[in-house]
Amino acid sequence: MALFTGTPDATRLLALSMALLALALLLAAALVARREWRVARSRRVFGRAVSGVTGATTGAAVVAGPGADAAMPTGEGARERSALPAHWLRTRWGRLLVAEEDRRLIAQCGGASLRGQLLLLGGRALLATTLPVAAVVLQGAGLLPGDPVVVPAVAFVFGFMAPKWLLARLAAARRARVAEELPMFVELLRLLQGVGLSLDQGLHVLATDFTATLPVLTAELAIANRQYAQGRTREHALQRLAQLHGNAHLAELIALLVQIDRHGGAVQEPLTRFGERLREHRRAELKARIGRITVKMTGVMVTTLLPALIIVTAGPGFLAISRSLATLSR
Question: Does residue 268 sit in helix, strand or coil?
Answer without folding.
Answer: helix
